[in-house]
Amino acid sequence: MKIGEASRVSGVSARSLRHYEDEGLIVPGRSSNGFRDYCQSTIDRVLVIRSLLESGLPVRLIREVLPRLTDEPDVGTDVVCAEFLHEVQGYRDRLAARIAVLSDQQAALDAYLQEARRADP
């Protein structure tokens, strides 16, 4: 299918599909006229990528593990999954730490605003 149909079917913009290709996340086929040709397995891969990106994972991490998760399901899956889960856990821990800092900053601003409102006649 051409990029417009692939975009419609996957719910991902044509621009994003091109970006995924530029990042090495997908490799669509090419028709004789040079147009991109997306097969169902590429669309399935796009849906996995989209889900991982929406979860907040960086492209770097997705690029590293995605080929092993989707292309070679029987080769070293346990090791790949363990490494991937370790990376995801680390990313989640860093995210939780950032959220804690932001929550503290929000609480400080809330306290400041509350105090300022009491002082304002």
UniProtKB/TrEMBL annotation:
Asked if DNA-binding is a keyword of the record, the answer is yes
Where does the HTH merR-type domain lie?
A: 1-68
Gene expressing this chain: hmrR
Q: Which CDD domains match?
A: HTH_MerR-like_sg3
The protein's name = Copper export regulator
Question: Is DNA-binding there in the keyword field?
Answer: yes
> Keywords on this record?
DNA-binding
Question: Which GO molecular-function terms appear in the entry?
Answer: DNA binding; DNA-binding transcription factor activity
Output the InterPro entries linked to this UniProt entry. DNA-bd_dom_put_sf, MerR-type_HTH_dom, MerR_fam
Organism this protein belongs to: Streptomyces chartreusis NRRL 3882
Q: Which PROSITE patterns match?
A: HTH_MERR_1, HTH_MERR_2
